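Consider a protein example.
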Amino acid sequence: MNVLPSEVVLTVVERMDTASTAKLMETNKWLNAVIRSHQRSICKARMAAFTLPPTGDVLSSEDYYRQRLPHGTFSMIRELEKREAQCDEVVQSSKFINTAWPPGMGFLTDIQQERLRALLKQALMRCNQIADIAANAPCSPLSLCYYSFVETGEFEDPDLPSPDRQLDPITNFAARDHQLEYIESLPLEDLAILYYTINAMGLGYLSKYGEGIVSEPSLFERTTVFEECLLRHGTWFAWSAICGEGIWTEMAEKIQNIGWTELNMFEDGVEGTKPTLKSMVLRQFKRLAKPDDEDNDTWHDLMIHRLFNMIKDLVVGPDEKKEAAEAAAEAAAVEGGADE
């Protein structure tokens, strides 16, 4: 059945998802051999279609564990397809983010909402890149056996000995410094998008509890943990916490419980605990955006204001804001002339 040139077959396969590719490979041995022998080039072509495609290995998104998936393989492409679908579901979920009337922007048109969703998706995919640092040198994924202790809750114990806590694949102390370095390398606009997205989803987490905001004194700290989990685990955690059910929801709660333990350890000054990723996002934004002559005491509020304005410009568009201002000025001039 090898009547088609292999170049034609490869051109078609480069436009197929992994499920369709797998079915095609099952049809005959010749197709299987051609596709398998060109796996890397097919994957390279497919990666161009994804938001922020990875440059190295990635972590899988499975219930209660993650394993390393080599770059340029069909298993990696399958994972990227899964992430894209989960990210779209999270961003379009009205449970956490109201894209029609988002924080700090007012009412948005349909086109502006699409721009906002694209930025939110970009930020979540950036979080995936932060998580995937753990799958690449000089880091290495911890043994899958340690994920079983996530499910049983051992890593939630604040009195767990330090050597055992180093084996926690959720906190992953070994990858933290490299993740902080990655955040430090991001440009100003990417930091703003990341910070806005995490905060917008944190507000969604708060609103989920409604009246509980008043009755639960630790809710704001737990929101901090939720935001940090988004940064560390990307769509694996985001989809599980927001859209998942059953075992996925349980897993997201376990991940947050481990984060809660670490937050308490950090606040108690336990030796060996490390800075959060969110604190680095804000610190780096300040380093890049703060004018040299600006007073530190007044800059924080100005910094948050500038950060939100950057996002508003990206979503609403500085040209549209300028046109609205010019139209208002023109209307005022006309009205002034009529009075004369």
Observations:
- The first helix runs from residue 6 to 13.
- The two ends are 86 Å apart (CA to CA).
- The longest strand covers residues 58-59.
